[in-house]
Amino acid sequence: MKVAIAGAGAVGRSIARELLVNAHEVTLFERDAGHIDTDAVAGAEWVLADACELANLENAQLQTYDVMIAATGDDKANLVVSLLAKTEFAVNRVVARVNDPRNEWLFGEDWGVDVAVSTPRLLASLVEEAVSVGDLVRLMTFRQGQANLVELTLPSNTPLAGKPVRKLELPRDAALVAILRGGRVIVPQRDDPIEGGDELIFIAPVEAEPALYEAMQIVR
């Protein structure tokens, strides 16, 4: 996969390293020459340019990339990069960093954003996840709230224990995408049993969340 990252600060570099480990092709855009350090992210291509400038993206042939990640520390810049990537170059997947949670409402389809990642919100979600058993915790929002990645940790005495995945009565449009059990990540199959203490990861629209909570608490 070919990925462009706007912003080569600590966040952008960390993302680039992870992608390179997984054998993706990565290009980092950075407008500050002082932040260019090719040794810091070995294997990435570096471009000294402002990703908010249309001409710079044209020179880099952004239309040939699969993903654009707007990872600067400036929300305005991330919105501009996202909009250009989607509307001018038809990049299939645009991921944007939200620095100020108050701006999160802007990071949606109107600005070309497919996935918005708010670090403060994500950290808050992880804290909630650590202390919440039997409650739905939103981990990430897609397309400005049209769907959410949510987690539910089952209590040890859940009545669902031993029930196979195929018999879970999930609401329409909700999908179980992963089961976290101990140190394992399980891609759920139809006959896999549910166990007490499982962390269940779902993708579901907001309106399905109450029914999803009910389905995970009640055996019919």
UniProtKB/TrEMBL annotation:
GO terms for biological process: potassium ion transport. InterPro entries: NAD(P)-bd_dom_sf, RCK_C, RCK_C_sf, RCK_N, Trk_Ktr_HKT_K-transport. Keywords: Ion transport, Transport. One of its GO terms (molecular function) is monoatomic cation transmembrane transporter activity. It comes from the Bacteria. Pfam families: TrkA_C, TrkA_N. Signal peptide: none annotated. Residues 137-218 form the RCK C-terminal domain. Residues 1-117 form the RCK N-terminal domain. This is Potassium transporter TrkA. It comes from Gordonia lacunae.
